[in-house]
Amino acid sequence: MNMHIVARVIFVFFCLLSGPLLAADSGNSSFLVLNYHDILEEEERVPPFDRIAVNKDHLADHFAWLKQNNYHVISVQDLLDCMKGDKVLPTKAVMLTFDDGYLSFYTRAMPLLKKYKYPATLAVVGSWLEQQNVPGVKPLMTPAQIREVAESGLVEIASHTYDLHHGIVANPQGNQQSAVTSRLYSNEYDEYEKDEDYRKRIFQEVDKSSERLFQILGKRPRVMVWPYGEYNAIALEATKLAGMRLTMGLNDGANTLADAYVMKRMMITDDVNAKQFGEIVKNQRVGQELRVAHVDMDYIYDDDEEQTEKNLALVVERIKASGANTVYLQAYSDPDGDGNADKLYFPNRHLPVRRDMFNHVTLQLRTRAGVRVYAWMPIMAYKADVPLKWYVKEWRDGEPQLSRHIYTRLSPFNPEARQFVGEIYEDLAKHCDFNGILFHDDGILSDFEDVSPLAMDFSRNVWGMPAEFDKIHASSELRLRWAQHKTELIGQFTDYLTDKVRFYRPYIKTARNFYSLPLLKPYSEEWYAQSFPAFLKHYDYVAVEAMPFMEEAENPKQWLIELVEKTAQYPDGLDKMVFELQAVNWKTKQDIAMPVFTEQFELLKKHGAKHIGYYPDNVFNDQPKLAELKKFFPVSRKD
């Protein structure tokens, strides 16, 4: 599949399905950035339709709507002046941006900008300037035309990189992904681009783009517009050293002045008319309800790679047909089903790789099924060849011993263990492109854990508590305080892991699996080191196990109702909670009957649940039954 098409599909879905925005008219505290690409005449709009192109007449209608509704179009210089304190952002502030330097900007957009006296930013790809009159390539502006619009005083010329607006081979399956954020994979040598080679490539490309625009304009660009909206901390460092104070991505959202170094932009897609455009600007694509399918990679994997691809095709088609808009995808291998990571599905420094396929599977789901993909990863449960002192200890028979819990957890108190897990997450982000992280349900410490020497020293020195287990356990007040500290410690550990990922994938969202009992009976935090308020603070979403049969609830319906009602008692509770139904009764080893599954789904929705998912999805068993699932699972899509 052509990388330009793949990337456009990914980012269209990413823009359309991302979270809620701030209001555009909230005084002078925020501004919107709108993004356009090619501008077409009506007769040019023939199949296959370019979803990111816009009819010239519609563009004129958009500009007229902005004027009629008292929006103020600001320039890059206006923004810089506001950042220095020389100006104040006007109410309803908007920036206009046009990507790629198509000739249609010169012939069709520029006359409209002059008519309305609207400033705009034009992002130019340096290497494309050498591709004039190439058959099959859209007409591009010449250097002379770029210089002319820049001299008009209305247009800021931004770098769109020199030659990074394309895909590179990013995995053994040959998939192409963003040249800015992907590590080049060599089939010849069966290896990925090394860190130093990647860094050198990005820095050279940024410098080269700056130099090319200097040759045309006599000055260097102040703005970098990232191709496909993809960037990372290394790319940002390169632009900063090249003197580009402002950069722009493609994630939906309103910006404050603090966001100017990496601005969010709302891509205008599907050639919307004035009314539709107005709804987008005013309502700003409020956050969509999540419909989540929880997929085991171990179901897709087969020793035969050809069979793996067949399995993947079945999963992609099933997810696409189901109406799901989000997939929690297992990034680790757990063939014995004990919840611990035995191997991983991506290159890394510490665990065996069952097969390097997470990035490949994620790309197929995102581009072919149109869903967001969260990498489902353990927090602490790794079966690794590491010293025993790294693992969680429980108090048993009067002394600390290795925990007997089914999860073989590395201790979050051990700095070496923390670094070990952090490097795994770092390697995931280096080699895979995904939308979010789902932290596994292994993030628990019981009221007998962790009593390793490091943990007890931490308890005394940092928390000011006794370092003796017996003293803590003898007091109900101390037991709860100990649990609350552990809850926060695990939350801070996942923040550390999130930061590792966001260095390479800044846009990712976070979710964490949550046991139901700490929500229904908050005092049970003592037994889990989990609490809903703490989770709301640390994560974008909380995925509660809404599984009454697993919990052996006497009245499953009432149990689910109570779960929703308890959630609703917390500010933002329903906005952030994902209710995960069970598709299998693990106690009876039977599939949940579809009438029961459907009834539970509708019950949750009736009582106010916004985000609903299920686990597991089994393509081979057709469970949940697709014919039924797709009747009630979809939500309204904006794609």
Automatic annotation (TrEMBL):
It comes from the Bacteria. The keyword Aminoacyl-tRNA synthetase does not apply. Residues 92-327 form the NodB homology domain. Keywords: Signal. Pfam families: GHL13, Polysacc_deac_1. Gene3D superfamilies: Glycosidases, Glycoside hydrolase/deacetylase. Residues 1-23 form the signal peptide. NCBIfam families: deacetyl_PgaB (TIGR03938). This is Poly-beta-1,6-N-acetyl-D-glucosamine N-deacetylase PgaB. It comes from Methylomonas defluvii. The gene is pgaB.
